[in-house]
Amino acid sequence: MNLELYIVVLCYNCESYIKQCIDSIKSQTYTNYKVVIIDDCSTDNTSSVIKNNINNKFVFLQNKHNTGPLSNHIKAIESFKYNPNAVIVHVDGDDLLLHPNVFSLIAQAYIKNSTHLVSYGNYITSTGNKSICKPWIKGISISEYISPVGWIFSHLRTFKLKLWKHIDPKISFYDINNKLYTSAGDVAIMKPILELAGRSKTMFISIPLYLYRDNIPLNEHHKDLNDQVRCALDIKNKPIYNTVNE
Asked: Tens digit of pLDDT for each residue in 28-45?
């Protein structure tokens, strides 16, 4: 297999977890990958832990100012060399991959389904809560999954880099005050990505590949739920992208 994986790792004040995250990436049996890891101006020892544990597959970017998850997602994706067939893989710095064959399974899924452009799900949580991920039901739009149906497109999220060029950042990533969304960055990115790919080119991987720490204080669901809801509902009403022939 020669499919290239581009791994995006974002972190902020996760010194207790980031080594496990890095180790879970370094342990992967599939080795055709590169990592961009961004520390969003942490106030703890996150940056030191990163520097002491990464190898030459990692590029470490350390922000001088806290810019937020969405800004860092964009920064990381756009820092990779453009390879339209490469697959972007999102791993949060306080989470980890469940076993050494995660990247192999992702690569196999894309190679087996050569026309597919996106994959998502499934995970286990640190508290035992069930995964929210389910197959995308025919006839339900991405906006409906934001509300009222409920978001299902979660970890492990991946997509072909070729979709990124079709997104208009000003339309998709900025609120009515012309500011980048401060929460729900995954929804801001995945809504246009899923719309561009369409249901027929989106894979749901039911086997858990990811450990999601849903009980830490910096988890977005705990930190500022009101802001997350505000951003998600605004994103819901963004213009819908047409599917692309890629």
From this structure: 999 999 999 999 999 999
